[in-house]
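So, read this over?
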Amino acid sequence: MLRTLALSCCLSSPLAFASTPELRTLTGTLHVVAGGPGDQTDPHVSGPLVAYTNESRGTSEIRYHDLRTSADAAIPNGGAFDFVSDISDGTIVFTRVSTSSAIYTFDVAVDAAPRELAPEAGSSRRSAVIGGRTVAWQDFGYTGVTSQPEIAVYDLDQGTLTRLTDDTFQDRAPAVSPDGSTVVWAKCDEQGLRCDIWQARRSAYGFSSQALTGSEGEESQPDTNGDIAVYASTRTLDGVTDRDIYWKPLNGGTEQRLALPGMDANPSISGSLIAFERRDPVKNDFDIVLYDLSTETLYAITETPENESLTDLSVDADGTVRVVWTVSENGDFNVHAFTFKLDDEPGCKLAAVDTPSPEAVCARPGTWPLLAALEVARTSGQPNGVALGFAGTGEGVLCVDNGYNGENSTAGWVWINGRELVDPSRFKQGVPLVATRAPLDGHNSLAALISGKPGSAFRLRVYAPPAVCQPAADTSTGARVIPGRALKAVSSSSSAVSPATFVPEGPVRDTALRGCSTGGGPLTLSGVILLLACWLRPSARMRKALRHSHRAL
């Protein structure tokens, strides 16, 4: 968190908004995919089908739901514990725990029962993902060491199993491109602290594997559409540590970043769209947002007081888009979806709205987007200063939260674009908030100084006016209109990565490569019981843990 900096005259501009006068919108329909007793979580979508985990009364099964017909069914499991699924073109993969931890597949249109992939006695596998006819998973059976998972790939058509990684690092959170030709994952050090994104691309002779990111940050939660890889990364830039969404071409090129205040995580990509979880630093709960790479537009799919997470999306050839996520409601977890169709032409009919006072915006921002957030703290000596560049247009609002993370300040100055908006006379005794209108001209500079008593502090927030759109006359009943916010990505410098390593595909696993644990094997029955004790839901926090075992750190 930024605390005290020397005042700088050279301001960066981490946010950049497109200057088009037309605003884009999404018009679609919200669905409740699963909201019954127990927990429904970790949804994944391909076309109209959603696969998700359903847990109730100590049992866990994989269910699938058709968004067109609302038909919902379970995959038979005979009392086993099934969880963490993925889906591609009607084929579902998931982890099944009984006397071992194995990967199963189920074809919705064909199979009456699921089948195990590459069966192996005492297997220890989890976090299966699928793209096309390629399945990837974390495999602990090669080493027998729970801190050294490897990435394995299975070809459903050829029946071949390939070990992609062979090292002492922690390889986890795999994802597969829709055509099955590319696998991405996070490779972390032995302590699981330093993580980078790796890729493996299939040719006629096997896979070529290499790092995609280097030492610039801590990366995790990758996904790919076959052309680019998207991931979350924690980095310290200009003294500020933040977690943002990044992406990079698989064939080499400039890394891009969405520079947004607050924590962003768990990205999923399909076509030109990226869905991810976003925690606004003021709202302080997780929402689902969508970014269109082709139009450089950001959409808030959810803006509720509940926590939404574990998102996935699918874009059909006809432009139909389906976004799914998990939401916490009344102590349980449910699955929701939003369906819309991409429109080639931008358009937004602005609805007339009343302009609230600056004090009202600061107290309840609502749909006003947060453009910048900054703190300044008083030490001693010369006045302490902070500076930040940001983007935005219109009649914005500046909020100064006096005493934030410190004592109330008695003297301070705030400028936007060189215009003094707050001076020491505004810091009156007992006034916790200073609010004022702030004209924004596209590329803006925010600067502040604090003087007075050491230990005093205040926070700055800048909001832009919302784009409030109303449905066109032919919008169907029950449709929801989501206004877009133009947002350009920021180019990021990348460090050098390793050369490619060739990994030939193999028809079978070499059992001699399997390691042994002190318990006598990669996963004993007592180990299964311990896994079940961890994976069964003792509290609401387990939903996030399940997701992170699948895609995150």
Q: What stands out?
A: Confidence is low (pLDDT under 50) at residues 1-21, 471-477, 508-553. DSSP finds three helices and 39 strands in the chain. The CA atoms of residues 315 and 321 lie 5 Å apart. The longest strand covers residues 384-402.
